[in-house]
Amino acid sequence: GPGIAPASANTPDTSMYGQQLQVGKQLADAEAARINASLPPLYESPVPLGQYQLTSLYAMRWGVMHAGLDFAAPLGTPIHAATDGVVLEAGPASGFGNWIQVKAPDGTVTVYGHMYSNGVLVQKGQTVKAGQVIGLVGSDGQSTGPHCHFEVWLDGKTKIDPAPWLAEHGVRLSNYVG
């Protein structure tokens, strides 16, 4: 049509440029993957996917609010910090046996319970990173078997359902994809 120059023998082969762009994109993607692989996670599951079974959810149970998730796992299974933060508490707690509280930079507190005393691997005031092993699964306190009881407290006090909170932060609780 009008305004379109006809192809001629002097027109460069644009497929060569397309190939070069594709190679450049592949190199950029590989570099981004390398950088992302070296970055620590921002959020992590308290117990790694595939090493637990969820046995109790955030819900009323026997007339009492169960304010967390129970990750059943073998005794001694590592418990990971879900976020970066500072350990507020690490030791005995009524009902929890032993617990760990980690306060994230945004004020959210994550709580991990039912470790035996020798399964608490951090101290009050210690700085931790998401994914760092902070404890070991136990069955101390009001517990019917080895598990990590996990809670999330917004602003350090308002207990919320940890499942959607974890999902919002990219942490999967199941291998199910669909």
Element string (H = helix, E = strand): HEEEEEEEEEEEEH
Please identify, by name, the CATH architecture of the largest domain.
Distorted Sandwich
β-strand number:
12
What's the overall average pLDDT, rounded?
87
Query: CA-to-CA gap between the ends?
Result: 49 Å
Inertia-based shape: elongated
The CATH superfamily of the largest domain is Glucose Permease (Domain IIA)
Number of helices: 2
- Regions with little confidence, pLDDT below 50 for 5+ residues: none
Q: What structural class is derived from the secondary structure elements? A: alpha+beta
CATH topology of the largest domain: Glucose Permease (Domain IIA)
Which percent range fits the helix content? 10-25%
Q: Give the number of domains.
A: 2
Radius of gyration, in Å, reads 24 Å
The fraction of residues assigned to DSSP E strands is 25-35%
What does it look like?
- The protein has 178 residues and is an alpha+beta fold.
- It has two domains: 11-40; 53-168, Glucose Permease (Domain IIA), CATH 2.70.70.
- The protein contains two helices and twelve strands, in the order αββββββββββββα.
- Strands 1, 4, 6, 7, 8, 9, 11 and 12 form an eight-stranded antiparallel beta sheet that branches.
- A hairpin with a 5-residue loop joins strand 7 and strand 8.
